[in-house]
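Now for one specimen:
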Amino acid sequence: MVQVDDIAARKWRYASEKRKGELNAAISNLLLKTVDKNDEDFWALIERIGKEAEANGLTEEILNKILNEE
């Protein structure tokens, strides 16, 4: 379980199962790549995940679009 703010939770709740699956896969992949690096603290991990997601084309705007599609 990942804690998110109310807006993100609402968007997730109304996202299609296809979109949820895509996001789950992307998040899982990012976590698997970075979670074994014990020398990083949590915020450094979050920053790296955000940068990698953006480098792969997942911007906040695209994420919002995905979450708002039915």
Observations:
- Residues 15 and 21 are 10 Å apart (CA to CA).
- The helical segments are 6-14, 17-34, 42-55, 60-68.
